[in-house]
Design brief:
Low-confidence stretches: none
CATH class of the largest domain: Alpha Beta
Number of helices: 3
Distance between the termini: 62 Å
Radius of gyration: 24 Å
Shape: elongated
Largest sheet: 6 strands, antiparallel
Order of helices and strands: HHHEEEEEE
CATH topology of the largest domain: Pantoate--beta-alanine Ligase, Chain: A,domain 2
Keywords: Membrane, Transmembrane, Transmembrane helix
Helix content: 25-40%
Length: about 120
C-alpha cells in the first residue's frame, strides 16, 4: 500500500518544481533586481550634493570641479584620490578631497538599490 505522503511527493516532483528550483529562482530574481537598481556615478554625485553639500560640475576647459557650500560660503575642493568598487549588485565609493585650508574630507559610501549609506 502506498502512503498518501509518498503519493504527494511523487506528484510534486512530477510537476518538475522542487523547493530547490523555487529557492534558486528567488535568489536569481533578487540578484537581477539588485543589479538593475545599483546606483550610478551620477546618482553618487547627487547624493554628495544632498548629504555633504558638494556640487560636482564639468567644464570643458577645467574638467570636473568640486565646490562645497558651508555656512552660506562656497569653497573649492581639490579631488585628491578616489576608489570605486563596482561589484554588480552594489558599489562602494571612497573619495578624498582637500579644501582651501588644507583640511581633508574623506567620504565613504555604499550604494545598493538606488540608495547610499555612509560607511
Amino acid at each position: 500500500m502506498v502512503s498518501t505522503h509518498d503519493n504527494k511527493a511523487a506528484n510534486y516532483r512530477a510537476n518538475g518544481i522542487s523547493k530547490l528550483t523555487i529557492a534558486i529562482s528567488v535568489v536569481v530574481i533578487i540578484i537581477v533586481i539588485l543589479a538593475f537598481t545599483n546606483p550610478s556615478r551620477t546618482d553618487f554625485f547627487k547624493w554628495l550634493e544632498s548629504e555633504y553639500a558638494i556640487h560636482v560640475s564639468y567644464d570643458i576647459n577645467a574638467g570636473k570641479t568640486y565646490t562645497q557650500i558651508t555656512n552660506g560660503q562656497e569653497k573649492s575642493l581639490i579631488f585628491r584620490s578616489g576608489h570605486i568598487q563596482h561589484v554588480g549588485i552594489y558599489t562602494t565609493y571612497d573619495e578624498l578631497f582637500t579644501d582651501a585650508e588644507g583640511n581633508d574630507i574623506n567620504i565613504k559610501a555604499l550604494g545598493i538599490m538606488n540608495i547610499f549609506f555612509k560607511r
